[in-house]
Amino acid sequence: MRSVKEPGAAHDGFSDWYWQRLSAVVLLLLLPLPFFLLVSVYSGSLDQQGLLDIIDHIYSRVLHTILILALIVHAYVGLKVILEDYVHRIFWRVPLIGTMLVMMAGFGIWWLALIWAWA
User: Fold this and answer.
1) Total-model pTM
2) Residue 58 clears pLDDT 70, i.e. is over it
3) Given 31, 38, 78, 119, which is the most exposed site by the fewest CB atoms within 10 A?
4) How many Å apart are CA 59 and CA 71, to the nearest integer?
């Protein structure tokens, strides 16, 4: 195997691969649940009060927290790998990845504040 000139932040890439797959499995398990709730509301089998009762439960909040964290990790790793592959100048790559991280963290904090403010 040849030596790589600049391996980047991923080094061998295993950690990115691992986190991407782990977050994908979590998303695969948890993402159908909100869609099921939406379909239930739009079909009329679940009214607004029933939906609020489900969402207000502590288990729902914990699952929602895990869902948003997995979504942010999955999006961050995927976009970071794309930027590392296609933005060749470190002068541009580092600020882009940093900006992306700050924006995703802000979005996650905002979303979690909404979810946990229902109490």
Assistant:
1) 0.83
2) yes
3) 119
4) 18
Checking if the pLDDT of 10 tops 60, the result is no
Give the C-alpha separation, 106 to 52, whole Å: 25
- Dump pLDDT digits (tens) for 76-115: 999 999 999 999 999 999 999 999 999 999 999 999 999 9
Phi, psi of 52 (to 5 degrees): -65, -35
Quick one: which of 106, 112, 110, 103 has its CA closest to 80?
A: 103
* CA dist., res. 99 & res. 105, Å (int): 10
**CA angle, 70 then 76 then 80, to 5°:** 150
The whole-angstrom separation of Cα 65 and Cα 70 is 9
Query: In sequence order, what are the residues at sequence separation of 6 or more whose Cβ sits closer than 8 angstroms to the Cβ of residue 40?
Result: 46, 51
Cα distances (angstroms) measured from residue 102 to each of 26, 79, 98, 109, 115: 23, 13, 6, 10, 20
